Amino acid sequence: MTDTPAPRRDLSSTRSNVPVCGVFLVGFMGAGKTSVGKALAESLGWSFIDLDHEVESREGASVPEIFQQHGEQGFRQREQQALGALVDQLSSSHPAIVALGGGAFVQPENAELLRSAGTITVFLDTPVEELWQRCCEPGEPERPLRTNPVGFRALHEKRRVHYIQADVRVETAGKPIRQVAQEVIERLNLHCQ
């Protein structure tokens, strides 16, 4: 998986001129966005926000329940509203690491919102076989769009073309969470607390 397009902006000049208000982690289900996000937030002394949890809090229902009651389109509308509210709250004096759900960055409106807000997006890239294994481990949360291995692979391929549009791509295969977090910090030239 070497298809790495050029970043859509020069992060070195962005970092030197504009304080970072948010780093948004994107990737498929099981990529480690929540685990890496928490490790990043702890290392940097920033807040950690999981967009799915924001949606659940606003709706008073779990993601699977929202999918069941309103379908995927209804969930995506609620997700977009939560993301918009979240982006409006971020500031350089209170920066955050944000884990997006696997389908959030795929939605053109969400990707454009993040781009126009000047946030940084990081794609946690993991081989599909490892993602499937992680999602099938005991204790993993219910994932409404995790079907069979064939459907899982097809959805991954469909979404990956969007994920690679993130500012930075970090390969996570076989790496411990802390190592991935450290690589993100180094790639973005962020400063730990």
Could you give a short description of this structure?
This protein has 193 residues and is an alpha/beta fold. It is built from 8 helices and 5 strands.
Question: In terms of topology, how is this protein built?
Answer:
Layout: H1 11-17, E1 22-26, H2 33-44, E2 47-50, H3 51-59, H4 63-89, E3 96-99, H5 108-116, E4 120-125, H6 128-135, H7 149-163, E5 168-171, H8 177-188
Parallel strand pairs: 1-3, 1-4, 2-3, 4-5
Describe this protein with a few key phrases.
Rossmann fold, alpha/beta, five-stranded parallel beta sheet
What is the molecular shape? globular
Strand content: 5-15%
The total domain count is: 1
Number of strands: 5
Q: Please identify, by name, the CATH architecture.
A: 3-Layer(aba) Sandwich
Helix content range: 40-55%
User: Strand order of the main beta sheet, please?
Assistant: 2-3-1-4-5
How many individual helices?
8
Q: If you compute it from the alpha carbons, what radius of gyration comes out, rounded to the nearest whole angstrom?
A: 16 Å
Average pLDDT confidence is: 85
For the biggest sheet, the summary is: 5 strands, parallel
Class from helix and strand fractions:
alpha/beta
CATH fold-level name: Rossmann fold
